[in-house]
């Protein structure tokens, strides 16, 4: 639980850096950021609402445990994202630097969540589902989905910042692709251990 909270905090901090640089990113987080620039609705509320349809997908494709873990992760990111502007001073970086730093920090947070059997919903649920069922590369799937989200977000941040945003998406996707095998192995091992435990329990 502590490790998961740390992953959520890192992700929230990365998003905080992106927002301070007026940069968007991919997935439901990026979509929520884009809309928050246009409407007087907080990122936290938007992030929660946008993820609801993906919770349903996760429930049927990934099971209850993964779904509840994802709901918890999204809730923690939402909570941390609400608290960071209160706790920390306003941070503004040059867009390219903010994109690189934010993308790298979000990438670390996302990998921590994946390796602990959770996600941040949205494209990540889709990426994990396709990786498990068809062995599709998680990073590439995520990159395609995220690029589409950023193209939508160009309206809110402009073309130049939109291009900077793609940098953050590329960094996150590259990190996911790099750790893909470790993530898959970790989740497989955890699943095997849980299955063995269930078998032993029923045997007793």
UniProtKB/TrEMBL annotation:
Against Pfam families, the record matches this protein to: YitT_membrane
Q: Which domain of life is it from?
A: Bacteria
User: What is its subcellular localisation?
Assistant: Cell membrane
Instruction: Mark the transmembrane ranges.
Output: 36-59, 66-87, 93-115
What UniProt keywords apply to this chain's record, in alphabetical order?
A: Cell membrane, Membrane, Transmembrane, Transmembrane helix
Presence of the UniProt keyword Membrane in the record: yes
InterPro entries, sorted: UPF0750_membrane (IPR051461), YitT (IPR003740)
| Topology in the lipid bilayer | Multi-pass membrane protein
**Under which name does UniProt file this protein?**
YitT family protein
């Amino acid at each position: 639980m502590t490790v998961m909270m740390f992953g959520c905090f890192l992700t929230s901090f990365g998003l905080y850096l992106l927002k301070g640089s007026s940069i968007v990113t991919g997935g439901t987080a990026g979509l929520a950021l884009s809309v928050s620039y246009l409407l007087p609705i907080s990122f936290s509320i938007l992030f929660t609402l946008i993820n609801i349809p993906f919770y349903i997908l996760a429930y049927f494709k990934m099971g209850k445990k993964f779904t509840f873990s994802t709901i918890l992760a999204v809730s923690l990111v939402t909570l941390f994202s609400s608290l960071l502007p209160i706790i920390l001073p306003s941070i503004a970086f040059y867009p390219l630097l903010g994109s690189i730093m934010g993308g790298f920090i979000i990438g670390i947070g996302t990998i921590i969540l994946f390796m602990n059997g959770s996600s941040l919903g949205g494209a990540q649920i889709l990426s994990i589902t396709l990786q498990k069922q068809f062995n599709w590369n998680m990073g590439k799937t995520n990159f395609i989905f995220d690029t589409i989200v950023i193209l939508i977000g160009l309206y809110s941040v402009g073309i130049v910042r939109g291009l900077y945003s793609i940098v953050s998406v590329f960094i996150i996707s590259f990190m996911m692709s790099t750790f893909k095998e470790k993530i898959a192995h970790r989740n497989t091992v955890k699943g095997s251990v849980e299955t063995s435990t269930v078998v032993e329990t029923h045997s007793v």
